Amino acid sequence: MNNQIYGYVRVSTKDQNEERQVIAMKNFGLLADRIVIDKQSGKDFNRPGYKKLLKKLKPDDTLVLKSIDRLGRNYEEILEQWRIITKEKCAAIVVLDMPLLDTRKEKDLTGVLISDIVLQLLSYVAQTERERIRQRQAEGIAAAKARGVKFGPPQLEMPKEFFNLKKQWKEGKISARKAGKILNISYQTFLRRAKQ
Fold this sequence. Notes:
By secondary structure, the protein is of the alpha/beta class. It has 2 domains: 5-134, Resolvase, N-terminal catalytic domain (Rossmann fold), CATH 3.40.50; 161-194, no CATH class. The chain has 8 helices and 4 strands. Strands 2-1-3-4 form a 4-stranded parallel sheet, sandwiched between helices. α4 runs antiparallel to α5 (109-146) and α7 (176-183) packs across α8.
């Protein structure tokens, strides 16, 4: 059987567009049915498309990536997956954005050393970028909360009767369930708003 060439494309969320990576794969000569796409974070390798692709890889097959961070963003795991693909599976890897990371070529000891150093450096950069993104998100959320920005769905506007029913509930004259029914809201919503 002929050696196969597969492309692996990953975007972090369902909203992100994978088209740029897919175009790069097609320009490399890959057919659409040879491109595997995951829409999932690169924090680990528990991704359905990647797992299936890894099982398919045979010796002398080739895995094409647009950039190393599309493989993942965890330094240790990128190095481990690289080892599994190139050593255990005996398949080749081509990273389009980094020609030094092309294991198809016969390399002398110096070439292997250089590609190992580049791989480690790029893996480190990918994980560092992921950590920076998470830090920026946390800082942005904290700053928004400090400004009074509320997260989650907007609160329902309570009818005028709410305040009277809240008073009755606090005095033990009415149950939360009955108050919720009167207001046409769930008793959990009534309780949450009454306790605010």
